[in-house]
Amino acid sequence: MVKRIGVLTGGGDCPGLNAVLRAVVKTAMVKYGYEVVGFKDGYKGLVINNFITFKSGDVSGILDKGGTILGTSNRDNPFHFRVEKDGNVEYKDMSDRVADNLNMLDIDCMVLIGGDGTLTSARDFSRKGIKVVGVPKTIDNDLSATDTTFGFMTAVETATEAIDKLHSTAESHHRVMILEVMGRYAGWIAIESGIAGGADVILIPEIPYDIHRVAQKVMERKNAGKSFSIVVVAEGAKPLDGEVVVSKVISDSPDPVRLGGIGNRIAEEIEKLTRIETRVTVLGHLQRGGRPIPYDRILSTRYGVEAVELVHQEKFGTMVSLQGNTITSVSLEEAVGKLKTVPPDGELVRIAKSVGVAFGD
Ligand code: F6P
After folding, report:
1. Which atom of ligand 1 is least distant from the CA of 287?
2. What is the pLDDT of residues 208-262, one digit of tens each?
3. Rounded distance, CA 26 to CA 16, Å?
4. What pLDDT, in 10s, does the model give residues 318-339?
5. 361 is an active site residue
6. Domains and their CATH numbers in the chain
7. Would you say the CB of residue 259 lies under 6 angstroms from ligand 1?
């Protein structure tokens, strides 16, 4: 019988994390009478045993708050954990230490909230016999085993608002305005915000672009009397014969490459080819911060409640998942390691092209 559960938030933060924590803690404590322990700063807290024991009231007033009250980290992999010894850095498998900590604290199972990295470690803990349930989080929406991750729609809302604002200044100055959005190797934020914001060009990693086709679209608009254009570019977009633009490499991160900079690159090229003044906005971490929109508050609550139901039913080694409009679960073995990308011949690309959006292909 489960009596005490642990919870943590891992990976990059995203809107809705607190709403999931609230749902987990309330359902666990109020509905089932479990105790809930929260580990701080992602897997780091689990390795170094840094935790709080939730009291009723600890999760009051956090439903609409961005970030995570537990803290998070996208650098700590418990199976390859950075340790400093005598000034030297080494990486160690700390999963046995985690198992010992959980035993010592009498924790029956863990609810692990995170993206592919966090959930891959969740799967590996499950393989070691540790009872876990996963909750899929990321603004990138690139997890294949769920239709939507929480946080994604808030990021789309933020990016759409930015496009709306860029429209008015683009029009006044007769400029090309480029908005670079996040999403890593998937173009979901770019395509959804681009369609919602009425972008003229959307560049995504799934459709390598030819910059001459992009410039052609801008010139076609100019010749038709539209003296401005809006280009939304995903940070992972790349030219037909080129590579992604890397902004930095963080060597001790499980996923070391950080993308960024494509917006500036295409701005120079567009300006050269069209002679139209071009400006760039890099939306960056604004997409990860702030209040979750109602859709994400509801999705996060559904995920958090279902995670505890899975714990109660002892369905361990699983991840909650949205399929259609139904919350269900999938095995962690199936859930990780497969990137969900925008299908180049799918409906979103088709409808965007139907309303005149160019993809540079
Ligand atoms: O995965 C979420 C995400 O925001 C990506 O869209 C982005 O590429 C990356 O994290 C940024 O990571 P960091 O917060 O380490 O800069």
Report:
1. 4
2. 999 999 999 999 999 999 999 999 999 999 999 999 999 999 987 888 999 999 9
3. 15
4. 999 999 999 999 999 999 999 9
5. no
6. 4-150+292-335 (3.40.50.450), 156-288 (3.40.50.460)
7. yes
